[in-house]
Design brief:
Blueprint (H helix, E strand, L loop, with lengths): L27 H9 L2 H4 L5 H14 L6 E7 L4 H4 L4 H11 L10 E7 L4 E6 L1 H4 L4 H16 L3 H20 L15 E3 L1
Parallel strand pairs: 1-2, 1-4
Antiparallel strand pairs: 2-3
Length: 191
Amino acid sequence: MLQNAQPELKSAHPNVAEGHNVVSQPSFARWWRQAIFMPIMHRRWVSDEVMSRLTQKVTEAEKGHRGEVFLIIENHLPVNLAYSVGCRERAVDLFSLYRIWDTEENTGILVYVNICEKSLEIVADRGINAHVSPTVWKAMCDKALDGMAKGNKEQSLADLLDEIGLLLRQHYYLEHDPEGNELSDTVVFLK
């Protein structure tokens, strides 16, 4: 007798907490966009001056609370992964790779921007996620993406970083802000 065996479509990603799933559907179109992406045509706005200003914004966003904010801007998904890995899954991988989860109170937040896919993802550690609804993160992403689509890339990211700083101050306020920076504030640009 033949059994109708179907593969498990919702396999959990190894870097995601138990009970949560990050699944990217295979996509030839996504792979093709990465393969033909020409960074020189799309990353003009990512100058050294912009990176410096965004790094300063990360530093400002981290004042007055125990949270850590980390910003990664990536030109495109790695071509060898793009068929099977989407932006959310890539953001979770980078969250792990850069050890953003490794903060004393589990309050690390990754802001991931993918230029080719015109995507922005926020990955927050369990300490802050216990206080913030996924709909709040989505609304923040949507607002920043709307601004970026209108050509205000740097300002939209700066505003997003300010919003994240305010959110962290609401939940992890410190009257005396110690110099306990656990993660680098320098923006990472993956070419």
